[in-house]
Write a structure and sequence with these properties.
With 271 residues, the protein is of the alpha+beta class. It is built from 10 helices and 8 strands. The longest helix is centred in the last third of the chain and has 22 residues, at 248-269. The relative contact order is 0.11.
Amino acid sequence: MPGTLVAEEVKTAAHLGQYAGDPNFMTSLARGLSVLEAFAQESPQMTISQLSNKTGLSRAAVRRCLYTLSRLGYAGAEDGQRYSLRPKMLTLSHTYTVSNTLSSAAQPILERMSAQLNESFSVATLDGDEIVYIARSQVSRLMSVDLHVGSRLPAYCTSMGRVLIASQPPDEVERYLSRVDLKPFTGKTVNNVDKLRSMLRNVRRNGYAMCDQEFEVGLRSIAVPVYAPSGKVIATVNLSGNAQRMALLDMQTQFLPHLRAAANELSVFLR
């Protein structure tokens, strides 16, 4: 469905099976994380049966996970049947945010840019085949989905994702292209591997990426890389704008310099 937020991949029982025999792998911890990851925007409350179906874990295993999470304050069920996450979960994300130098440094920079330019800006990193937002300033609701820190989107049809994929070594890019499912979110989504490969080469050569209504109709974006001292791209900064009021040329001429300045500023914090 166009504009649907991509949910974080749930580690199912079948997925966890690949670690069988590893003496250092804590299966019980992995099961608990699978239960936590099963909760999503479209399913904030679930029963033991629903969680069992979604994770592939037995009802008994899910029940034990929920019991432990409830005793620790991370989950609970007001009616004793439908479980949901509790505010204590925010302490985990807050710990990451305050301990991550890039995330902590990015937020005030994005907010300053939004105040000056009256546009929405984001910083994201790559996690598997998806981008994860680690900082965001929003002046208006641009998308049908509510993007926030921790939101995940597919890399192939987003400007930030293309910057991050294009920065990978050539063999990594080819492995990505061989496995990615190029789902067409809109009529403009690039869903041809050869065309995407060519676009990624252009991103690497030009030093920025643009997406014109490929993830959601009416949304345009432009992104640039953030470099670590080693020269490796570790994140990306982007601007998202409404296609009706923001021309592609304006994004390049008016906003690209601001994005590059922000990326350079962020790189300083990593030294």
